[in-house]
Design goal:
Elements (H helix, E strand, L loop, with lengths): L8 H7 L4 E3 L4 H9 L4 E5 L5 H9 L4 E6 L2 H13 L5 E5 L5 H5 L4 E7 L17 H9 L1 E11 L2 H14 E7 L2 H4 L8 H8 L5 E7 L2
Parallel strand pairs: 1-4, 2-3, 2-5, 3-4, 5-6
Antiparallel strand pairs: 6-8, 7-8
The chain binds S-adenosylmethionine.
């Protein structure tokens, strides 16, 4: 994601204290308090937060968590959430590598991977957020009827991911062209809107926990 360095972005993120969580020893406790025993809907690599803000507005009865590394993007995300006065959404600043620590004892019902970095070189396969090592982390916090949903414009990531996902989940739906198939429930992310405007096809995979 192209971004400008913004002085004080982390401070601005943290000043939105209803929405901002850091990666520290209290994160798990804070997430569990936020969830209040309800299932969570989590986006890994939430960018500027547009997708989660739309989802949180559309589903006020659900609790959403975004995970993102970059403070400039987090700053934009919490500003959006505050402007919309959402009370069912928080963002964690940190690496998805720590997923298990944050969500231990919580119930993740949906895990969204929207347009995650494809890391095209084979030597970087381990960095893809659909690599087996990440899938095991996500799965450790997912409830029995949970779903994992991947959207990407990248064919190689799609092909890699479908193989990785099938090791730990049951693939229940996959499409090479989401907009040709159509899904009235689909909410477009910021990247998705950009790719669709350029005429790119959107791939989607939906998985469930294997029974
Ligand atoms: C291509 S952007 C997609 C943003 C958004 N999901 C969308 O569809 O508009 C991918 C995002 O994932 C974040 N990211 C990459 N690796 C990550 C990691 N290990 N943990 C958390 N976030 C990560 C990046 O900082 C980036 O903002």
């Amino acid at each position: 994601m192209r971004r400008r360095r913004v002085a004080g972005a982390l401070d601005i993120f943290l000043s939105h204290e209803n929405y901002a969580l850091l990666d520290d020893e209290q994160t798990n406790q804070k997430i569990r308090r936020f969830a209040d025993a309800a299932p969570l809907h989590v986006e890994v690599g939430s960018g500027r937060g547009g997708y989660l803000c739309q989802m949180a507005k559309r589903h006020p009865d659900r609790k959403f968590v975004g995970i993102e590394l970059k403070e400039e993007l987090l700053m934009a995300a919490v500003r959006k959430a505050a402007e919309a006065e959402l009370d069912n959404l928080v963002f964690i600043r940190g690496y998805a590598e720590n997923f298990k620590t944050w969500f231990e004892g919580a119930a993740v019902k949906t895990l969204y991977l929207n347009f995650v970095d494809p890391w095209p070189k084979r030597r970087n396969a381990r960095k893809r957020l659909t690599h087996a090592s990440y899938l095991q982390l996500y799965k450790s916090a997912m409830v029995d009827d949970a779903q994992l949903i991947l959207k990407t414009d990248n064919r190689h990531l799609y092909l890699f991911s479908i193989v990785e996902l099938a090791k730990y989940f049951k693939v229940v739906d996959s499409t090479h062209d989401l907009y040709a198939v159509g899904d009235p429930q689909n909410v477009a992310t910021e990247y998705e809107r950009r790719y669709v405007a350029k005429g790119k096809k959107i791939y989607r995979i939906i998985c469930k926990i294997e029974e």
